[in-house]
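Sample entry as discussed:
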Amino acid sequence: MDEERDAIALWVAREILPCERSVRLWLARRWRGVVDVDDVIQEAYCRLSSLNSVAHITNPPAYFRRTVHAVATDAARQTYGKKVIPMTEFDFSNVLDEGPSADRAIAASQELGRVHALLSKMSETCRRVIVLRRIEGLSQKETASRLGVSEHVVENHIARGLKRMLNEIAEQDGPQIDEEDRLIGTPRSH
């Protein structure tokens, strides 16, 4: 039995430890603020050490990542399960909805439609750079890698694309602002 434990420990050192850093980074990015990364990694190692054999594992890094994902899911379920507060119907009627109001949701939807319309006027590369950087939240380096271009190209497309969008929004809003000033009346300087 001790020989099998030693074999598993050697297997973990040889196959799992080299990929721990990348799994930690993935876990921190994917489960940001939901689970404690160190606790999840520790529990994953505990689960690996409790195995009777590792002979059935053909892809150790994938197995480790899947184990970490399962541990993180379990931890998230436990965390969210603890936050359930029993309430009566009367208590529930006094709960404030912290979500956006209907008019804010409609306004946000309209603004999103406006952004999509502006993006559709841009080149494919510029549009993809803006979507990857600003909407999906990738870094400049990740965006460049995904698109197969240099970071300098990403930087230029972001700068030009956002400038173009802001100019077009200002042009679209310009007449509306002038009309509002005319209706309301501009304050006189004394």
Summary: Residues 46 and 161 are 49 Å apart (CA to CA). The chain has a mean pLDDT of 82. The two ends are 93 Å apart (CA to CA). The longest helix spans residues 151-184.
